[in-house]
Amino acid sequence: MATPSIEDWIAINDLFIRYACSLDHGDVEAVVSCFTRDGVIESPAMGKFTGEVGVREFAERNARYQKKPGVQLRHVVSNVRIDVEPGGSRARAFCYLLDFLTEDGKTQLLSPGEYDCRLVKIEGKWKFQHRLVLMDKQFKIQGM
């Protein structure tokens, strides 16, 4: 594994941010576009979702929940670490994660955690192929 180029580092950081913001704004298509067609999301709070259909289901469930009056999720990512495989088309990236839920005017930290991601560069764009969510404490959100 190697340190990414500055261009790849910026592009991968942008991917993490686009994913988090798209998820928090209920933008299903933008979330799906962050993943490869065979992409996988594994979340202890929501389960495992595979392929474009699965990723879309994950994003739609999240978006439906956030349409409830007075509800907002915030995924805050930081401390991104990236290792690129020789050849430069595959990478593994980690970041810290804070999940906040605001409901009826009250905000709570659901849990700190980490994303462990495998990425692929397709036609010059980085996409998630596999995203594993690791939370420091388990939680479930009622209605999601």
How are the secondary structure elements laid out?
Elements: H1 6-24, H2 28-33, E1 35-43, E2 47-50, H3 51-66, E3 71-84, E4 90-103, E5 106-122, E6 125-135
Parallel strand pairs: 1-6
Antiparallel strand pairs: 1-2, 3-4, 4-5, 5-6
Give the biggest sheet: 6 strands, mixed
| Beta content | over 45%
Mean pLDDT: 95
Q: Uncertain spans, ≥5 residues at pLDDT below 50? A: none
CATH level-1 class: Alpha Beta
Structural class: alpha+beta
Distance between the termini: 37 Å
Number of domains: 1
How are the strands of the biggest sheet laid out side by side? 2-1-6-5-4-3
Task: Please characterize this protein's 3D structure.
The chain is of the alpha+beta class and about 140 residues long. The protein has one domain (about 5-135): Nuclear Transport Factor 2, Chain: A. It is about 30% helix and about 50% strand. It has helices at about 5-25, 30-35, 50-65; strands at about 35-45, 45-50, 70-85, 90-105, 105-120, 125-135. A six-stranded mixed beta sheet has the order 2-1-6-5-4-3. The longest helix has 19 residues, at about 5-25. The mean pLDDT is about 95.
